[in-house]
Amino acid sequence: MIEYRNLRVAVLGGGSVGSQVTALLLEHADELAARAGAGLEVVGVAVRDLDAPRDTDIPKELLTTDAESLIVGADIVIELIGGLEPARTWILKALHSGADVITANKALLAHHGAELFEEAAQVGAQLYYEAAVAGAIPIIRPLRDSLAGDRVQRILGIVNGTTNFILDRMDVTGDSFDNALAEATRLGFAEADPTADIEGYDAAQKAALLASLAFHTRVPLDAVHREGITTVTADQVVAARKAGYVVKLLAICERVLNADGGIDGVSARVHPALVPLTHPLAAVHGGNNAVFVEAEAAGSLMFYGAGAGGLETASAVLGDVVSAARRHVIGGPGVAESTHADLPILPISRVLTRYQITLTVVDEPGVLATIAAVFSDHGVSVEAVNQTVGAVIEGVPSATLITVSHEATDESLAATVAALADNSVVREVVSVLRVEGL
Amino acid sequence: MIEYRNLRVAVLGGGSVGSQVTALLLEHADELAARAGAGLEVVGVAVRDLDAPRDTDIPKELLTTDAESLIVGADIVIELIGGLEPARTWILKALHSGADVITANKALLAHHGAELFEEAAQVGAQLYYEAAVAGAIPIIRPLRDSLAGDRVQRILGIVNGTTNFILDRMDVTGDSFDNALAEATRLGFAEADPTADIEGYDAAQKAALLASLAFHTRVPLDAVHREGITTVTADQVVAARKAGYVVKLLAICERVLNADGGIDGVSARVHPALVPLTHPLAAVHGGNNAVFVEAEAAGSLMFYGAGAGGLETASAVLGDVVSAARRHVIGGPGVAESTHADLPILPISRVLTRYQITLTVVDEPGVLATIAAVFSDHGVSVEAVNQTVGAVIEGVPSATLITVSHEATDESLAATVAALADNSVVREVVSVLRVEGL
């Protein structure tokens, strides 16, 4: 039944994902061949250390430390070593030799995507990266193909399992950030050095990939506004729930429209935000991921599933392997990167958002009017104010004021916060969080 | 920038979806061309009546009643007339002439899919049908491509917006089925003749398509067990919520394993079922759709969005149009239907499920033991029993007994219900519902 020649598959990396991918390629060989229309022969697995312990046994004779030789002559190269180098050099070499490349390396794509996609387009090879965003959840193909005839307006993504685990735990148990992080580390949801996750670097890389794809515009990583979750307090999380929200770290990609409804540009940003409890993203618990997409014709879509474990990532990688193999059998060049729109990329200051601002103020007549004037001076209108009486500080009674703004530019909102902090009736700016998904 | 020749696109059908698709093809022509790599020229829209009123204006000069001439010479044919004939004949004609075909016609695919896919494979054309299941929600491409390297174990789908609207309304308002249906009709969620929806025919067609794709096995429509929602009572819905469930019409596709963990075969079925309130599907409200997929490596995934409105369906159709156009530009035949697994298709009697059975019984000592014996005589074990005192009927006190079984074959469970109905201590079998998603 299989008439095409066997395709030579090289795996770069023998870590958690690499060993799972190799095991599945060997174990499910017949099934994958039937689906691909060609046999898939693993020609080798390049590792740094032949004797390192692995999640899944890889046959000794497949292991090699000579990645460069492995790449030569491979039809499909699977890059699972992570990091920028030598991954970049090896992928370029593979593409240059005409191999299709599959990678889960979001950092590399976010930093060097343009160069890699250009090399792929020049030789007619294809660069697949479904595993780079949200583990096994199909999101690259739906954005590239399924929504290719639609116009994506906005993406709200929970794309980092570690931070979602931490924030969910803070919400459920009342834990502080530090305690929730310790628990995440203990359970293997956070790495020994959690910086990339908790500071939002990982999510920012994924935001750059999603925005580029959704808006047919190269969005470089350094254009993504990034805030992590280390400053989120237990008090903020408790107050959020009381007000009908949950705090999530969101990757947000959106088209920014001008007053005439034309497109001013696009923006990508990562920051903690208040999400209404009624929004589907609020129900994404633990280490799970979800990507909520709003498109002109399709309306609201959500893609939900587990984050990026070894096995989940292997599922996405193998889906790409079958696609690559089918493409080999069919012939012809791959689908090139689509950057035709080339829209301006706007800084976060230009983005329309809402702020929830919690203040401790002096509790005396006229304070609310003073605060309201600060908002209106900055062109920001207030949607809701909630005032509760607080402690008496140095003989002066104080009150807590929780305000939620209407939509305004992030620039005006930030300026409003700065002015509030300087105002004599304000004792403290307790919390500032953006509100999304309303 | 666009160097390929214009591709000739023929639209068959000028109804709600057809007019939306045509409008978007014309309005977004430049954008679609940039994404596809070739211009998309609408060569005509075949309609029955040139003067019928339409949702969106179609330029008069594009309208024609001569579909057959339109098909000749088209590169891409979009079939949106629905029904079996002449849709089948026209699609065969289009494929035979080498055109790629896009259809939203689940009834046609469920009845004549094998014939159409074979014709497509023979000429190397491609048959796209993302719009046939769950409107704009990308599910065909994720199953065909993204999960091509994984093994799907189970699909639980809310794939019919009308029935989900009705059941959700019964749940939220306590309405009877008849009243909820009337409301659905009033709001345009149900057609004048709602039979196809409320009797589960529409969902069964989608189940056949999903099962065929997920299991690489042709699952014919008549192998899909089908029950509608017309017998679901307000009492059942209220009792379900009290017990921590919500009633949903589910399309269920699953692999059935034997005792050794080998695959006995696959099954597809549509019936109302109790879904735990903690399951993501329980949160799918109104006319929305969602498909929950369990795969060996990927774990649990969910795809969520609006049901099949005109605009949503147009989004899915246009995604397929861009894919078809890219394929033309690249060259080579399409990806053929994958039916290599060719697994046995099992009847519902072989499927493992759970029943919630609500009985009115005579309230006297020993009744519970009698009931329990009926279960065990059929090899079914009981997970939970809940007994409440009921009315005195003809001098004899009665009680309501709600039992939830452990997993057993549908055959054993059905036999248990029959035996219970015949037992003298049972006054009435009040409700029988399967439980899914535990």
UniProtKB/TrEMBL annotation, chains A, B:
<keyword id="KW-0791">Threonine biosynthesis</keyword>
<feature type="binding site">
    <location>
        <position position="106"/>
    </location>
    <ligand>
        <name>NADPH</name>
    </ligand>
</feature>
<comment type="similarity">
    <text>Belongs to the homoserine dehydrogenase family.</text>
</comment>
<comment type="pathway">
    <text>Amino-acid biosynthesis; L-methionine biosynthesis via de novo pathway; L-homoserine from L-aspartate: step 3/3.</text>
</comment>
<feature type="active site" description="Proton donor">
    <location>
        <position position="206"/>
    </location>
</feature>
<dbReference type="InterPro" id="IPR045865">
    <property type="entry name" value="ACT-like_dom_sf"/>
</dbReference>
<comment type="function">
    <text>Catalyzes the conversion of L-aspartate-beta-semialdehyde (L-Asa) to L-homoserine (L-Hse), the third step in the biosynthesis of threonine and methionine from aspartate.</text>
</comment>
<comment type="pathway">
    <text>Amino-acid biosynthesis; L-threonine biosynthesis; L-threonine from L-aspartate: step 3/5.</text>
</comment>
<keyword id="KW-0560">Oxidoreductase</keyword>
<feature type="binding site">
    <location>
        <position position="191"/>
    </location>
    <ligand>
        <name>L-homoserine</name>
    </ligand>
</feature>
<dbReference type="GO" id="GO:0009086">
    <property type="term" value="P:methionine biosynthetic process"/>
</dbReference>
<dbReference type="InterPro" id="IPR001342">
    <property type="entry name" value="HDH_cat"/>
</dbReference>
<dbReference type="GO" id="GO:0050661">
    <property type="term" value="F:NADP binding"/>
</dbReference>
<dbReference type="InterPro" id="IPR036291">
    <property type="entry name" value="NAD(P)-bd_dom_sf"/>
</dbReference>
<dbReference type="InterPro" id="IPR016204">
    <property type="entry name" value="HDH"/>
</dbReference>
<protein>
    <recommendedName>
        <fullName>Homoserine dehydrogenase</fullName>
        <ecNumber>1.1.1.3</ecNumber>
    </recommendedName>
</protein>
<keyword id="KW-0486">Methionine biosynthesis</keyword>
<keyword id="KW-0028">Amino-acid biosynthesis</keyword>
<dbReference type="Pfam" id="PF01842">
    <property type="entry name" value="ACT"/>
</dbReference>
<dbReference type="InterPro" id="IPR005106">
    <property type="entry name" value="Asp/hSer_DH_NAD-bd"/>
</dbReference>
<feature type="binding site">
    <location>
        <begin position="12"/>
        <end position="19"/>
    </location>
    <ligand>
        <name>NADP(+)</name>
    </ligand>
</feature>
<feature type="domain" description="ACT">
    <location>
        <begin position="356"/>
        <end position="434"/>
    </location>
</feature>
<dbReference type="InterPro" id="IPR002912">
    <property type="entry name" value="ACT_dom"/>
</dbReference>
<keyword id="KW-0521">NADP</keyword>
<dbReference type="GO" id="GO:0009088">
    <property type="term" value="P:threonine biosynthetic process"/>
</dbReference>
<dbReference type="GO" id="GO:0004412">
    <property type="term" value="F:homoserine dehydrogenase activity"/>
</dbReference>
<keyword id="KW-0915">Sodium</keyword>
<dbReference type="Pfam" id="PF00742">
    <property type="entry name" value="Homoserine_dh"/>
</dbReference>
<dbReference type="InterPro" id="IPR019811">
    <property type="entry name" value="HDH_CS"/>
</dbReference>
<dbReference type="Pfam" id="PF03447">
    <property type="entry name" value="NAD_binding_3"/>
</dbReference>
